Amino acid sequence: MPVSSTILVADGDASIRALIKDILEARGYEVETASSPASAAALMARRGPALVLAAHGKDEDGGSLVHEAARLGLVTPVILLISAAIDNPGRLARDCGAMAYVQKPVVRAQLEMLARLGLAENELRSTALVQEARLSTAQAFLRSLLDADEGVTFLLDETASVIECSGPLESLLGRDVGECAGRAYPSLFPESVMNLHEGAIAKARTTGEAARLEEHRGGMVLETRVRPVFRGDILSGFVVSLRDITARRRSEVGLAESEKQYRSVFAGATDAIILVDREAGAVMECNDAAARALGYEPGGMRGVSIRGLVAHPEQVLSAMTHGGDRVSYDYLKRRNGTSFPVELSISHFTNAGREVCILYAQDISRRKIVEEALREGARLYRAVVEDQTELICRYGMDGRLTFVNNAFERFAGLDEDEILGREVFDFLGSMDRRALGEWLEHFDPARPVFDREVRQVRSDGEERWISWTHRAVLDDRNRVVEIQAVGRDETEHKAAESALALATEEKEQYRLNLEATFASIPDAILTVDSDLSIITSNNAAKALFGFDEERSRGHRFEEVVGDESNPCVQVLRQVLATDKPVRGYEIELRTPVMGERMVEINCSPLEDRERHHAGAVLIVRDISHIADLEKQLQQRHGFRSIVGRSGPMQDIYQLLEQLSSLDSIVLILGESGTGKELAAEALHHGGVRAGKPLIKVNCSALSESLLESELFGHVRGAFTGAVRDKVGRIQAAQGGTLFLDEIGDISPMLQLKLLRFLESREYERVGESRTYTADVRIIAATNANLRESVRRGAFREDLYYRLNVMPVTMPPLRDRQADIPLLTDHFLGVFADNFGKHFDGVSEEVMDLLLTYSWPGNVREFKHALEHACILSPGKTIEVKHLRKDLVDQIRGQVREPSVQPEPLVPASFAVHKPGREDVLAALVECGGNKVRAARLLGMHRATLYRKLKGWGLDG
User: For 839-843, what is the mean pLDDT?
Assistant: First the structure.
């Protein structure tokens, strides 16, 4: 975790937190605050503060943050905030592992001093960790270097005693590594060579330079090098390397033998072989065949320039300089001035820092015979080319035509006699004629071919595109004998190329438009292949995930984002595994640039041209502003299908949000009618399984045998009445969520089977021995006290612990009095739509009754009571007369019952009549202006008190 400079203040007293924050921020420190150890631990995990000031007392455990810092691997010091009434605070701080303590009320000077000391302590601890890591790394490198050496390595102290050693000691010295440590290095060797190693140590000690010795022992050749190690001018020890160099010595012998064989081949070759210094261009050596062929004595060619040996030295030197490997035709000059044609093969190598060329010269005098045969072949040439569809002609260096084939005659609309002798330029345009003339005038044997496309008019007047290839025919001295030209009609091809170019341009423009559109889309779009490697990504994706083009394309997505648990990685893997899309998955995403963002993830399979799945497309939309608005609305109204804005319900909403994206088992507890089923639906529809089925099972409504069949399914004939196979609820919930309502009412036998399924996710259908597996999330609910059922033996203890992974307790309506006005408006709207009526609300007297009653049936009873009133009411306002009479009597009887309130909250002056303006003002005076306490004293809900004050113009 990176080092932070933040100071975290954790205290349940908001005034203490504010005071400490003001003092420290005035000194330039960055301060974070937390109201409880739990929220402080969460901030520590996220930010890693440099110092923690934590309250420690009766209701707060600042010492727990010391252990939390150690668990998170932080070096953060903790200073306890202790009340002045606590005895021996220094001992208390030491017992908790804290660095120091500050007594409350806080003294500014003491606080500032301890803050400076705490930050300095954090820096020292961080530095110590870095130094420890560096030392550990250095030791690891040293061990790696020792282990990487193929020989034996000894580390000796200044007395030549072994500190550490590694390598094949047993094979080279016949000793184990363990018995060498601490012994004098020479004593490890036989007496016959001990003095040699002592001498090497003494030499290295005396000269300060490395000493070397070589010994032959048991058919091996061993080389020892002793290098002294100095710290400044002081000898600290020695590094000794012992290696078996037997193979190297044998290689040297083999190399000498290979050189001998090379010399025999070089000397015995029948063709001339010449070694030339590439830079100087002079002969270094040649074989006997080369000396004889060129008229020199053996060894007489050394130092002769290559320019005097070849007829065309520039061609050969160019090939030698630019790395050519062959010169097809040249002449070697003999010492007496005569020459003979050769073909040169050239190779290059480096010897002792000198660039060397090997010229392998093959005498090609016999090719004259072949040339004669070629003349015979020329007579067959015409017979071959006459039937070609290409235009074929030949002309001399003067440009006059010497041969044309039939296709050329038809194109020109002339006979052969009319064409031969005319210049080839007559059939070319002016620009092409000029280019061809320049090629002929400045002919270079290195460029024997000239290609040109020309526009020519055929004899029928139609203009055609002809692609001409002019190739020079050279003699054995690289002189031009004749030019042969072949013309191909490319008109249709040119038209196709034009059409293709137009289509390509349109396609490129379309591609650029698509790329611009793709890059400008504000949603992050990213495609991956089946291995999760990134194919493409737009600008929004690069900004959201914080990567550039080089770190994205072709790299694996989880490596780029650097987080295996990233929800985007999980969604991509799910789509690649199932080939099914994920739609509308909302989750909080940590981004490297923008921090925590609320996003909506959509992912679909990517198909290739053959409709095979080749990857996935990920679309991430930033909906943080929408989520903020929704969160505000939810705080005002509710969470998904649950209605309520009270403090207990806000805690439930936050817990449900945290659990939605997980697959952990959730146990929903609460009285009947508190909305346990709605909580289960919120968990399912808020997670990644939202697109999969939510299957509900009421465990108390079925007998043991029927419930087992409903859960696990059965096969035909499993019991009487099983006339066909039945799919169980578990199988029906595959990939989704299974909600087990009233789980506390199942039988002990079914408890055991359910426990086995929860442990292994495997089950068997009734009447069948085959085992099935299921991928489902389990959510259970009950209004029973499972812990009491476990104590009585009615519920298995192991099943209870397996279900009680993440309990969620739904608060009863009597603890959510602040939600009653909101629930009233909600249900009035529902029943107004159902009954086709319009309701403005309920009267104040009805609201007072609703707020006074404890509602043992919770929200379900509350809903049915309002439904009864809406049926009887003609519309507008719900009055007391529209409520059930027994409910009104029960509510009023509950208010009068003395056992409900052990001590009177309403003075006698307020109890005999409905509180009026004077009563309310008297209560406010008695409570010091505190409206909440005044409402409690008057026996009314604070919302009723606020309405009365507003009506009297006293709400300011």
Answer: 91
